[in-house]
Amino acid sequence: MAVAANTPIELINAVYGRLAERVTLGRERLGRPLTFAEKVLINHLRDPQNQELERGRSYADLDPDRVAMQDATAQMALLQFMTAGLPEAAVPSTVHCDHLIQAKSEGRIDLAVANDVNAEVYDFLESVSAKYGIGFWKPGSGIIHQVVLEQYAFPGGMMIGTDSHTPNAGGLGMIAIGVGGADAVDVMTGYPFNVRWPKLIGVKLTGTLSGWSAPKDIILEVARILTVKGGTGAIVEYFGPGAESISCTGKATICNMGAEIGATTSLFPYDAAMGRYLASTDRADVAAAADAHAAHLRADDEVLADPAAYFDQVIEIDLSTLKPLINGPHTPDRARKVSELGAEAAAEGWPMEISSALIGSCTNSSYEDISRAASIARFAADNGLVAKTPLLVTPGSEQVRATIERDGLLADLERIGATVLANACGPCIGQWSRSDVVEGDTNIIVTSYNRNFPKRNDGLASTLAFVTSPETVVAMALAGRVDFDPTVDTLINASGESVTIPVPAGMELPSKGFTPGESSFIAPPADSSNVSVKVSPTSDRLQLLEAFHAWDGNDFLGLPILMKAKGKCTTDHISAAGPWLKYRGHLENISGNMFIGAVNAFNDAVGQGKDQLDGSTRSFPDIGKHYHEVGQSWVAIGDENYGEGSSREHAAMEPRFRGAKVVFTRSFARIHETNLKKQGVLPLTFADPATYDLIGEDDRINVLGLAGLTPDVPVTCQIVKPDGTTVDFEGLHTMNDEQIGWFRAGGALNIIRQRQGV
Ligand code: MIC
Ligand code: SF4
Question: Which residue's CA is the closest to the ligand 1 atom numbered 12?
């Protein structure tokens, strides 16, 4: 397949060519006007006539237009794809090298080091991409979501990506869904993408942003209202006059961070701001095509007039009254006004000093973001101020970096002391070689990223991370303190004068257009018969996969509890990133991090528990290894929203590899629940949430009647106490017949292999 550095207009025209007819069909089938998300979904249904469309219940088969993968998840996705026996990917797909570059010194040096240190992984990804007709974006090209927005996204399109922040493309009116690698393998092997027909949350925006308030504040407010699980199973659709006042990249920031409320995705309707962005990124033809179909690239008028009648929930936010917000630590729904942080820090006993300030990431590194941040830096430098903390900048793409360099914006930031890192994830995902603090030093960082989970940025549990807009981060860096409110407070400069920082002033798009910088896209060859995929048998970073065994047909009896998690247990707790990213292509080695961040509900220890076979206390990964070696299957237990955060399927594959049969929780995050199903682990929720409290450290679990596993029917389970008494409970599941088939086959990939005859 010819995969280019952009989405060909022919593909876009084909999507638009069937749009009107599909919209009519959708209105007929549902007997009512449609929201924008519904139009895009219906236009991508495999069987639009017959697909059941019950919100929150039906599973839908969809055909996305594209697949995107980043290097830390692409390895496992493509190792799985390789075992499926296909000559090439069935859908245009790309790989983006962004997660494996460590931030240590500055961009160019760090990139050169990464090219050396990660050579075998990059060689694997480049060769496997060439072999299977996949486009390859080299390290340094930028962060997947920014590159997708600049090159591939289009209004009314649909894509999946092996990263939870794939919804970033919703800023350009695309339904873009974050998935685990196994979902990507389905689509790349020509099978549909299967997902629950979503519920719909409407967010009506009125008024306009002003002063220090930024698009980031909109999503911080939405997350505050909805909480980290409030978007589960839903698409968040924005609309209203306020929506049109936000730039395309600002909309992308909002959609990006919709991942933090667990939403399936988020999107904005097509408007003039998107048209301007398309034209500015060399896609005037896409803008013209979208203009011609604009009536179908938005919700129907009746929906806009009476949203409560069409959405499951409607939130209204007046942008004119929205104040700058900041969230953290530890959870993305803990937001308060910037002006209130100082008082809260004092009450909580947090330090007032900021140890580092970081801007950029896939969330907030657009030209507009950097120009607003740079406007403050320029003023500060002209008025005798410098940053009082280290200030690190990660540009989202080479195109943005080259353009902000050309326009002097990077120089503005450097004048106040900023260091420009590589165009990559860097400190956002723990790729941060930081030596100024050590574990135990309680310290505060402020970032313009999206997540603030413990240990995420620097691996230190004692770092408290706060998330806000880039302009607020820069202002706080100038003050060096969290009790600084740039809207009212002043700073003292080098001459002892009191200085008020002016309101940030940015530019939506570069007046001279974007400059591409050093292009680093490699298209797959037309004939890949001579390409061989490079995996060394002695590698400790890459390991070819062996198929998991099918279910043996027996009930699960007497399974020990390897881990019972207390409180928040995100995928960062289950399969940590940072130093572990280097093992993302080696299932056995990465299993060394299994549950190391989880808090043991029996004694509050982090990452360790009791080995039921010998009574010893060991790390969770060591217990897993021991059980695996002796063939002892086991279960894990989680609390609410278990598996929140990343799409990394390692968080499901590691337990599967080490012998997990069932994960019980009070509730699951969507991507992680699917990842467990895909790998053949049963995800069950307690019918009575209080059952969680009844399970003791030395108890065993029985899971019964598995031969009769049926959609919508609870599974009978038992807690077996050490004295042999039992407590019955019900486990609920969300599997349809097909997904029960994955469980029986020992994972969805085994079914694809059977169908392909391998
Ligand atoms: C993240 O932001 O947590 C990541 C790292 O981008 C992950 C993907 C991964 O773990 O590789 C995500 O968001 O899905
Ligand atoms: Fe990379 Fe951070 Fe964005 Fe994830 S959230 S893709 S780690 S920049």
Answer: 646
